[in-house]
Write the structure tokens for this entry.
Amino acid sequence: MTVDRISVIVLAAGKGTRMKSSLPKVMHGIAGRPMILHLLANVAELRPDRVVVVLGKGMDDVAAAIAPATVAVQDPPLGTGHAVRAAESSLRGPSGDILVLLGGDPLTSTATMRRLIAARREAKAAIAVLGMRVDRPHAFGRLVVDAKGCLERIVEARDATPGERSITLCNAGVMAFDGALIWNLLARVGNTNSKHEFYLTDAIGIARGDNRPCIVVESDDPDEVFKVDSRAELAEVEAAVQRQLRRRAMDGGVTLLDPETVTFCHDTLIEPDVVIEPHVVFGPGVVLRSGARIRSFCHLEGADVGPGAIVGPFARLRPGARLAEDAHIGNFVEVKNSEIGRGAKANHLAYVGDTTVGAKVNIGAGTITANYDGFYKHRTEIGAGASIGSNTVLVAPVHVGEGAIVGAGSVITRDVAANAIALARAPQEERTGAAARFRAAKSKRKSKAKSGRPKVPKARVSTLAEG
């Protein structure tokens, strides 16, 4: 046996029926990624030799999401002990510790994993179990310990006596096994219980019967032992993760004016001295450079916001948006797959898609880049220092040269040369006195129409006095 070797088994075969979803429970998202990937990210920091994820039959979408982790299939599902045994063939050979985790507990930390393994090794225990204190244990398995604090057995709630139900030290579901003993112990687990399943927790009693010590390590973080079995619990875990992400951002030098209203993604990268105003949502792949400011009610996904840039309020940055230093994207502006040059501005009511915008360009209100012809996307290029007037449509593919001016209300379908002025609108026509003549004609017609209508007698309304 290699003492320092660590293997990990993640149990993720459950359907999560209480989620009331066709999506497997472990694929439900937390901070922008499936909960199983949160757990596997923490497992990766442990640097285990082998990781096996136990799935149910037909969970191909989960298998694809967790690649390249090894997958073992539990079919049919006959309990947690049976699920762990499904991974046995993938873990043959020498092993020091085998850590068993639950896919529905996405916040189990790497530090706790290490602490559990270290405690098992120090005590030379067959099994170390992560415990948690719960005021109202309800359905949690109870940890029964002896006078010396050694773990004697784990009793499932449905099989517990009234005295055992009063125990508040409960099973958190994480277990570290001596790899030399685990398969022998599990081979002797039976299914004589109310559900006729093979409980992993029964291995404790079997190990104690062999005079092998078992121990409990209590969790010191209530968030990391939180179970996700319903949409309400998913929301609580989301809130816990958001608290962590907000604290991490603020500890890193980011100002959040109203932290509880900001929603981060797991991979949001923010440099110091960024300011984020209330009610901002981040999707995956966002980077905010130092000195940037995100104003209220913005949504950003797949965007890179440069130093000193300002976004919002009420702006949307879609994937591929790249803002250079001091660029401004204002209210009700959407940017998609576009580079906005240094100091360039689109301050209100614009759509900029598949576009390269040069430095110091000003894009007027109501401007859109018409990038889609019904079949293909095309790019627009706007040279440095150009000015695009309000209510302009740039029909891609089109190039506006450096320093050019496009007049308001124009529809630009051809390239504009550098330093040129482009106008593409119908000439204005003015007819002196026409408005007064128009109103007079309309008024006369309306009066004539009214005089020609037959008179309708007014309805007589009776009163109670007439009754």
